[in-house]
Amino acid sequence: DAGITQSPRYKITETGRQVTLMCHQTWSHSYMFWYRQDLGHGLRLIYYSAAADITDKGEVPDGYVVSRSKTENFPLTLESATRSQTSVYFCASSEFGGAGNSNQPQHFGDGTRLSIL
Amino acid sequence: KQEVTQIPAALSVPEGENLVLNCSFTDSAIYNLQWFRQDPGKGLTSLLLIQSSQREQTSGRLNASLDKSSGRSTLYIAASQPGDSATYLCAVRLSAGGTSYGKLTFGQGTILTVHP
User: Fold this and answer.
1) Long-range Cβ contact pairs of B102-106 (< 8 A, separation 24 or more)
2) Over the stretch B73-115, which tens digit does the pLDDT of each residue have?
3) 3-state secondary structure of B56
4) Mean pLDDT of A37-53
5) Cα–Cα distance between A107 and A32 in angstroms, integer?
6) Is B41 left (phi over 0), alpha (psi -120 to 50) or beta?
């Protein structure tokens, strides 16, 4: 089925460990996004990508690394996990509508709940 | 910096009632506004997207309006049902172009409970 899938759904790890969260979409959307959702802060953008090999920082990028070697995949890596990175992480994608049709909705995955002990 | 506020933070209503959720934003130079629904433990589902040139959008029992000049949007839910219980979020996208293309700024959501 077409859609956007995130893995794993749940992850528990320890401080200092490297963790990679996976995101895969089957629509061939140009744009992909990583958000984190925390009580009191809502959804905040971490990184986004406009196309393969093009990424840019969002509101809270520190401590995270992304890559996009293929259009359909957009992994998020925590290089050395900290307790403050305990959160629910959402991946999203949207089509690039071009200058005359840029009103494309974002579609979200079901999230990864990450706990760092 | 764009800020998005949703009022109320939580709302509990009996089944069958019509209700309004509010969203306000500080920078009126938006490209579009999107309303989402989030069920517990799930991702966000897009409900309605209103372009900056539009005044409202309708889908079934849902109607979203946009007043860009005053920085406000409302989501109207008619004849509410227990299945409508969820968190509703609004998000604005700034005008197209530059490095901010496609990025959304979210409100913190309204938790809606519809009881039988």
Assistant:
1) B102/A31, B102/A33, B102/A48, B102/A50, B102/A94, B102/A96, B102/A106, B103/A33, B103/A45, B103/A48, B103/A58, B104/A33, B104/A45, B104/A106, B104/B34, B105/B2, B105/B3, B105/B4, B105/B25, B106/A42, B106/A43, B106/A44, B106/B4
2) 999 999 999 999 999 999 998 765 555 556 788 999 999 999 9
3) strand
4) 89
5) 9
6) left
Nearest partner of A28 among A73, A61, A80, A69, judged by Cα: A73
Q: What is the mean pLDDT of chain A?
A: 90
Collect all residues of chain B within an 8 Å Cβ-Cβ radius of residue A90.
43-44
d(CA A58, CA B94): 14
Cβ-Cβ pairs closer than 8 A, A with B, add up to 57
- Among the listed ranges A8-12, A99-103, B47-51, B56-60, which one has the minimum average pLDDT value? A99-103
Which residue type sits at B39? D
A81 min Cα distance to partner chain B (Å): 23
Burial of B99 (0-12, 13-18, 19+ CB in 10 A): exposed
What residue of A is the nearest CA neighbor of B9?
Answer: A40
Look at the block and give the residue holding tokens 């938790």: B111
Q: What burial letters (b/e) apply to A5-22, b meaning 16+ CB within 10 Å?
A: ebeeeebebeeeeebebe
The pLDDT confidence band at residue A102, using thresholds 50, 70 and 90, is low
